[in-house]
Amino acid sequence: MDLLGAGATFPYPLYSKMFYVYWQKTGVKINYQAIGSGGGQRQLLNMTVDFGGTDAFMSAEALEKAPAKILHIPTCLGAIVLTYTLPGNPRLRLTPSLISDIFLGKVTKWNDKRITDINPNENLPDMNIMVVHRSDGSGTTFVFTDYLSKVSKEWEKKVGRGKAVNWPVGLGSKGNTGVAGFIKYSPGAIGYVELGYAVLNRMPVAAIQNKAMRFINPGATSTSIAARVFLPDDTRISITNTKAIEGYPIAGFTWILVFEEQAYRGGPEKKAKALAKALWWMTHEGQKYAEPLHYAPLSPEAIIKTEKIIKSITYNGHSCLE
Fold first, then answer.
1. How do strand 130-134 and strand 314-315 relate by DSSP bridges?
2. Same domain assignment for residues 54 and 187
3. Residue 48: which of 33, 59, 58 has the closest Cα?
4. 20 to 30 A Cα–Cα from 60, which one of 66, 80, 113, 188?
């Protein structure tokens, strides 16, 4: 039995681990193509995959236009980090206004007084800032631009939020892997990636000032704290710019997208049941693999809502979970 998915690069390190372990345990192969959240949504809508992966929840309008009802199943949470390449690998602190002005092209030098004032112990060079962003439709971009739109009225007005936006400055690269690689080998570069990609590449990450005016380092704990909010039944929620005192401000859920009714392509019922069973494993036993890979596992409250969603997956009107 093979299952096919495509979408977000954000959770790919975790999904790779989960799917390998699940194959070893059950013999069910889950092939996942990390092509970006936009691609994952498109492929599901085109009915060319069994599930899509996305870090950007689908809008009410997009769900209404879909050929059938789509469910959002959260699998974990992650932090979007600002990573960079500078001499000496300084540990930077950045404020919301500085981040927005760097990505708007208004702050262009690493030794700009606004940066050095909040990083007095770091020897920052007289070097141009090179902004790096995603070139593909990306849920990571959606989370990052959603954050910028909340903290900067100018960003919200000029650029806005989305899986793809018209960047005022910078160079693009495909996927979290591409952005991380570009930054790592480009002195003076800064960009945004999921935390695990920065850790894997041994790249520094910035502490970000949150709404409570505290500089917070990204990690599983600070991401979990950011997610301590009311979760709607469909789990479609933004948790950027959290009010939590110790919460990391650029974080979000990532979801698996599936059609509620699985008989839509005339495929076998056993495949629909295998998909539901795999999703249940990912959101239960599979959660233990999240934190070692720098993701935050689902909270007990999120798991309760997730269970209800997975139980609603049907084949010809009958639940796919035995």
1. unpaired
2. no
3. 33
4. 80
